[in-house]
Amino acid sequence: MSYQGPVPGTPRVISPSPTPSETSERQDSYFAPVTRSAARDQRHKSPPPEPIHEEKDGSSSDSSLEKRARTRSRSPILSAATYMNGTAGAGSKKRRISGLTPKTPVTKSEALSNGDVSIESNGHLSPYDRVKKSWREFSRSPSPLGLIPLHRHYRTLINKHEIPRKVLHVSIGFFTLKYYHAGLQATSITPWLLGALAIIGPTDILRHHYERFNRFYIRVLGALMRETEVDGYNGVIFYLVGTYIALQFFPKDIGTISILLLSWCDTAASTFGRLYGRYTIRLRRGKSLAGSLAAFITGALVGLFFWGYLAPRTGPFPDDPPNAYMYHHRLSLPGQVKDLLGWRPSNGVITGNTALAVMSVCTGLIASLSELIDVWGLDDNLTIPVLSSAGLWLFLKAFG
Hints:
elongated; two-stranded antiparallel ribbon; 15 helices; mainly alpha; single chain; transferase; 4 strands
């Protein structure tokens, strides 16, 4: 018997979008079609899922989008707490949303100890695939860190702050004061400087031709070297040449104080320049305003001590050469300037503490300029004593 009534319409099937919690629980299962009545009954039986509260990253987004769970990128991203070797720090936080993160963690490339970078194919873009150089680029020294073994083991003591090198640098100033106070003449010191130069110079040239000898040289004297000196020449050579020129070709007091400026002003400029140079302007490459100010202050204090205390109480000695001292606690304008201004010879003259203050300030200024000026890329150990001696000699020749 046929049915005469109208055929009922096919019921409309609605498949609601699963919530993030349902996705995490049944992400790998099959979702069958659910009718409206069945979905209504399921909502009455089970409590609504708790909303997901995500950390806001400060970016401006639509309010409706903030309620949705954000998916993570499939490519590994180095966060601020992730180190270069691919490991995360102890305080790093990772946002992990259930059901949206891969089951297998992504393995990041790790840097080898010799400076090369290992790139392993894991199906993702490696954060190191464009890196051509490694941790050697982060050295404070102009040359790559790792050429001297002691610099790798004692990075803060030797490579960063250069403590052994600075101790040697400063100690030479104290030896100079001792010899000056004892009345030792420059003619007695310069032969020893030439003898040391005759030994250190050929040794430094020899090590550049024999690799095994160079490795032994670096192993023994690496604490006193900079990494630029591995392929270059030792700074002691320039130190010996600079001190020899200052003592041999300039008066006794000028040569002595120039060595003190080399010993103490250069060390002060290097120390304070590394500590506070990032906070001041850069005057030229490798020279900051902080280092130059440190050299100026140290030079002024050295001038005040030498011209005001040591020199008046030391000497003259019987074997002093003629014209051994240029500063006699008196400064005067040149005679040509006095004639041009119509002054008497007694005018334009300062003595006592006023002359000492002017002499100390000029000493600090000359020390700062000699430390700052670059003369054809020569080493500071050569340029500082030569420029300081020449500057002080010219100043006292004009106003002494």
